């Protein structure tokens, strides 16, 4: 990390149980004057890894990524900041482009955010289709221009000024295994299901589940041409279809009246009542 007395940019990493991915991520952020790691309830050695690098560590437990990003924003002291996930990597070319752009745009008061395309690596394969090639993320902001983030699942930044799309991509090392993907799926599908349920979605039927699942597979594999990525493209389309199915199954769960918890309580109460009819066994 640079030891400049006038820090220009802070890297913000929101991490939960990312001890494995965090060290290499931090190695790609040495060009930043400060690094802030928001530890969102880790139970592994995430904080230890961050400490070894010399990053500032702040422990905050929120379910909402937007809230976490907002809390991080309050603690940034530099004129610019960049949000990076532990499984993302900044190449030297991208770092140089960010710094050069910030330097050359110092007199441009309207520039508030920098965005870049994200190269998603799924199962060791850079995704060239399936919609993943359209993944544009705004991640670098002028601190005073960024006002806040909103959104429970797909968070959105709100800032005053212009956004510039850079040429160099951000590398995203995701879907490293099916097990890793399922762990993340269990978290974000639940959040998305909750949002859909709160929007008063019509009752989810078996037809709904089939239609949503097959439509997502068709969209990823055929409409977005995911088949061009070969077997990985087809596997990813199937996984996205499964994710869509899991979202709507969980919406269906939330729609049950009485709730599933109440139904299981009724089973328990009935069994306790049944036992009272057999005092000789007590």
Question: Which percent bin holds the helix content?
Answer: 40-55%
Structural class from helices and strands? alpha/beta
CATH topology tier name of the largest domain:
Spore Coat Polysaccharide Biosynthesis Protein SpsA, Chain A
CATH hierarchy, class of the largest domain:
Alpha Beta
Q: Kindly provide the radius of gyration, computed on alpha-carbon positions and rounded to a whole number of angstroms.
A: 23 Å
CATH H-level superfamily title of the largest domain: Spore Coat Polysaccharide Biosynthesis Protein SpsA, Chain A
Indicate the proportion of strand residues.
15-25%
Which residues sit in consecutive blocks of at least 5 with pLDDT less than 50?
2-7
Please tell me the overall pLDDT.
92
Please outline the major beta sheet.
10 strands, mixed
How many distinct helices? Answer: 8
Number of strands: 12
The SSE order reads EHEHEHEEHEEEEEEEHHHH
Global outline: globular
Précis, in short:
The chain is of the alpha/beta class and 282 residues long.
Textual characterization of the structure:
By secondary structure, the protein is of the alpha/beta class. The chain folds into two domains: 9-174, Spore Coat Polysaccharide Biosynthesis Protein SpsA, Chain A (Alpha-Beta Complex); 178-257, no CATH class. It is 42% helix and 23% strand. Strands 1, 2, 3, 4, 5, 6, 7, 8, 11 and 12 form a ten-stranded mixed beta sheet that branches. A two-stranded antiparallel sheet has the order 9-10. Strand 9 (146-150) and strand 10 (156-159) form a beta hairpin. Mean pLDDT is 92; it is low at 2-7.
